[in-house]
Amino acid sequence: MTDPLSPPPRKNPQKRTRVPTRPSHVRSRAALGFAAAAAEGRFMLQTCAECGAVQYPPRDACGSCLSVELNWTDVSPAGRLIADTTVRISTNVYFRERTPWRVGTVRLDIGPSVMCHVHGDVAVDDPVRLSIKLDKSGQGVMFALPQKATPNMEDDPHMREMTCDPKHRRVLITDARNENAPALAQALAEAGASLIFVGEAESWHPYPHRATLEKIANVEIMPLDVTDTASVTELAAEIGGKTDILINNARFVRPGGIMDRGDVIFSRDEMEVNFFGMMRLAQAFGPAMRGRGADGDNSATAWVNILSVYAWSNMPEFGAFSASNAAALSLSQCLRAELLQGGVRVMNVFTGPTEDEWHQPLPPPKVLPAALARAVVGGLKDGLEDVFVGDVAKDLIDRWRAGPKILEREMLDTRGQG
Amino acid sequence: MSATRKGYDGVVAAVPVTVPYERFSKESAHWWIARALRQLCAQAGVKPSEIDGFCVSSFTLFPDTAVGLTQHLGLTARWLDHIPFGGASGITALRRAARAVQAGDTRMVACLAGDTNHVDSFRRTLSSFSRFAQDASYPYGSGGPNACFALLTDHYMRHYGAKRQDFGAICVAQRQNALRNPHAIMKKPLSLEQYMAARAVSDPIALFDCVMPVAGAEAFLVMREEDARAAGLPHAHIRSTIERHNAFADDPIQMRGGWAMDVDELYGMAGLMADGIDVLQTYDDYPVIVMMQFEDLGFCEKGEAPQFVRAHDLTIDGDFPHNTSGGQLSAGQAGAAGGYIGLVEAIRQVTGIAGPTQVKDAATAMVSGFGMINYDRGLCSGAAILSGGTA
């Protein structure tokens, strides 16, 4: 079993903040498939479409039959650790700072042998479950886990490098007024977050779940209006240096597309919150988070955007809202590139229609706050980059992957069921 | 197979050259190779313009290849090769050059391997060594070959019961040999106690299991026997050779090299068996690979190398003289020249010009090469049996 992680000591500002460094990020194009699999927590390898041979390392032609039809396929992660070593001297600065570092060879039941990172609870000859994790360089890497969960396994130091676990970390959730805020705060408290800041706009103006929010352990409600640059800057000056996880939860949503609205007022509000809100937050909080990506056990680790799945394909009934989320999705990719330099992950959680007043006319299924909160915390613990929460979101991304143009046509008359 | 292969009659290997190694060098690979070529010409008594075949191996020659070197060094070759096979380069160069000379495509081939070693060049070589290494081994701790061979060593120890002392015996014997080689980088004796107490690098590999990257060059000449005789050059006959790449791809982890596929042919072509070998030069980037060569080249059964090491004295004056120059473990690994060091030393041994490292009455030598941890295992292997001029 893994030793439980102790709460990190208060930071001594006189001491050097460890500069974020990265493991080697250079990969062939074929190997980028691991980042794509890891982003969603899938275990995928290239499989030959003609002879079925499973390939590792990734390649451009089948090592058995020379077919170039190699498809990334979900395969069994079961295997056995057949050798291990503890690297004590590394040529890479990232690993030099983290040695001893254990690696091993896993023989997968489906054939290939894989050099991988190894969880401390795995011994040689043990059966293991391989997973693909994103490392601090943002690339997908193989990680051997115990076949069954072990106590405190998430606290394994190698594993914690690959995940964004909220335990002992300080979180900022924007938009206390959002109906999902108590569920998010509660889930993070249960996951061991040491401080949960919740940003609240227009504090003079009451809202029904404020009392619930205040009662949750470690919650501190702070003034924050993401449409106001001064407000964002002010909060960042106060807590930016101890924000380890930022959950960008503010959203402005109204039904309607282009012609039925008649003006751009709501659309401007949607952009102010959903797009410029992210940008303001990122400009105020991003640099400090990027600089603290390797700052001990409570380093800055993740930026979470809660986005509509209609960012991928416009739902005309919420057409302008969808467009603001498409803009936000694109901006999140830029943010991902910028935060990656500090080893800080951007996780986008895509949701279908949520159970709230603005989605009231839409038919079920809808996403409940607790389900969204579970998806956020689960994604952080697994170190994911893309999470699709609820049946509508999962269905939509499947259709998008099958053919975005066909989905566009489906969205014309589905009344939100696309 | 051996019945269909033609022997290497009429062609010999001669003029073994070593440019003394340096730990670090500000010079380029071109500089080191030029020095080796100059020494080769001087010892052979030929002008560079008379060399019509040229074969090079180097990791640090970028952006040049053998082509660029022809102009750089003023050669007008009609036969040119560039062999990027790391530790198997020497054997492969010998095989190819010998056939070219035998067929008359070229009159003589200067075979050279050399690398420089700048302060940061080892790290740079590792991170871009191969595509599979870049994608699937370097991101895992970046321990380089130490970590890859640590995994093989760990597995070998578990499977066959080898102990660290057994690997240590190989390293200690080679250090004793190196103390007689004035070119060796390692000048101090090494005891088994020092070996066992050394700093851990990547368990179970410790400091003295690892080669020291250095700058240096090695070279030899492949030529017609009649030319060697006319010039009065001591020369070695090539009794047999083998070469294999990506052998036993289905083994879950490397426990044997390509030698095991071809060893019968190696002895068959030479018309002798393991007991006919007077001196052995293995590729010794890590002692576990030496053990695999003892097994795969027929000196003992699979898995019995640890007992073999315990039962034999591997020093120059011992009952099983092995890596008589000290090998890479004690003489240093000059990049691709590590694929030549054993071959050059073997030519010296069988022609009786090895001087302080000479094994008494060494008439026949085996040399083996091993190279290129492309991902999790060495892919290239080769071996040759050489005999002195009278054989």
From TrEMBL, chain A:
Residues 1-25 are annotated as: Disordered. Residues 1-11 have a biased composition (Pro residues). InterPro entries: ChsH2_C, ChsH2_Znr, NA-bd_OB-fold, NAD(P)-bd_dom_sf, SDR_fam, Thioester_dehydratase-like. Residues 36-67 form the ChsH2 rubredoxin-like zinc ribbon domain. Pfam families: adh_short, OB_ChsH2_C, zf-ChsH2. Residues 72-132 form the ChsH2 C-terminal OB-fold domain. Residues 12-25 have a biased composition (Basic residues). It comes from the Bacteria. This is SDR family NAD(P)-dependent oxidoreductase.
UniProtKB/TrEMBL annotation, chain B:
SUPFAM superfamilies: Thiolase-like. Gene3D superfamilies: 3.40.47.10. Pfam families: Thiolase_C_1 (PF22691). Residues 265-373 form the Thiolase C-terminal domain. This is Thiolase family protein.
